[in-house]
Amino acid sequence: MYTIGQVSEMFGLPISTLRYYDKEGLFPNMERQSGIRRFSETEIEALRVIECLKASGLEIRDIRQFMVWVTEGPSTYDKRKALFEARREAVETEIEKLQKMLDMVKFKCWYYETAIKDGNEDALNKMLPDSLPPEIQKLYDNAHK
Amino acid sequence: MYTIGQVSEMFGLPISTLRYYDKEGLFPNMERQSGIRRFSETEIEALRVIECLKASGLEIRDIRQFMVWVTEGPSTYDKRKALFEARREAVETEIEKLQKMLDMVKFKCWYYETAIKDGNEDALNKMLPDSLPPEIQKLYDNAHK
DNA sequence: GCTTGACCTAAAGTCAGGTTTAGGTATTAC
DNA sequence: GTAATACCTAAACCTGACTTTAGGTCAAGC
């Protein structure tokens, strides 16, 4: 069992955020001892799931819905599974998007490195859009398709 | 040259968002024809960069700073290069984080699939935290380390 | 017994990133 | 000539996710 201060330390989250999550119903069955929150393993695992669902783009209200399903027992297994399958899709899509953005960023790193060497963008502009060095051309094409 | 409506179509962005970006200074040298915005190749490429920098987690005000640097010419090449190198770091870190979250999500997909098969979580609870099937154990460990 | 530190609540405040509203212009279609 | 469309501005509004504020409880140390 942990206090809110200990959990705040463990997760690197402000105490105010943990209280906000609680107020929003993200820890539906958290115990209290004379008014003071006691975080058990259940809440710790819930918090790991919250961080994961948040990173996947889910809103607080939908995370609450999931937590409510958990309290409802086996009858909601299918809903919970469907939620995680949708999150899987969303995260995979997001990673693909970021990979594409990363190619743009890498291209721009090379671009400015070259511009600094040359002192201007003249040579670069002559290479664009399809006479770049092969490795760079790949990045450029992926970022601009 | 494109109108705001055409650009809105091309990028799938609301017209109001493009006007908002303009008001925030993200197209510092955009031309106008009797008050009407004309988006040239410069603004189209700017928009690609905006989407990229936004996806990388940069705020509008910092994107504006970059656009200002572009108008200032070769003297800001080093700043622009440094910005993209920082973005590269940020995106790589974000992708790693999402990979970890994806492992959690995949674990949960398997978890509920199994719970549905079994009708309860009893067998699952006996396997936790370190007697899971090998492939699943990897996901679980990565998500919980 | 009083101060310090860790906890509590309700309610107001903040911030980024847009979106909506209200009112207006200019061109094209009938 | 008038109606529909596509554009314009300034300013108000909205939303989600927190954070801050103001005021209070309670146990431990001195």
Describe the protein's architecture and organization.
- 2 copies of one chain form a homodimer.
- The termini of chain A are far apart.
- In chain A, strands 1-2 form a two-stranded antiparallel ribbon.
- In chain A, strand 1 and strand 2 form a beta hairpin.
- Chain A is mainly α and 145 residues long.
- Chain A has 2 domains: 72 residues, Orthogonal Bundle (Multidrug-efflux Transporter Regulator, Chain: A, Domain 2); 52 residues.
- Chain A is 71% helix and 4% strand.
- Chain A is elongated and about 70 Å long.
Please specify the SSE layout and strand pairing.
The structure is a homodimer of 145-residue chains.
Chain A: H1 4-11, H2 15-23, E1 31-33, E2 36-38, H3 41-55, H4 60-71, H5 77-118, H6 122-127, H7 134-144
Antiparallel strand pairs in A: 1-2
Helix pairs in contact in A: 5-7
Chain A binds a DNA duplex (30 and 30 nucleotides) through helix 2.
Strand order across the largest sheet of chain A: 1-2
The computed structural class of chain A is mainly alpha
Q: What is the radius of gyration of chain A?
A: 24 Å
Helical region count of chain A?
7
- CATH C-level label of the largest domain in chain A: Mainly Alpha
User: Ends of chain A: how far apart?
Assistant: 52 Å
CATH level-two architecture of the largest domain in chain A: Orthogonal Bundle
Instruction: Write down how many β-strands of chain A occur, each being a DSSP E stretch of 2 or more residues.
Output: 2
The two chains with the largest interface, and their residue counts, are: A-B, 38 and 38 residues
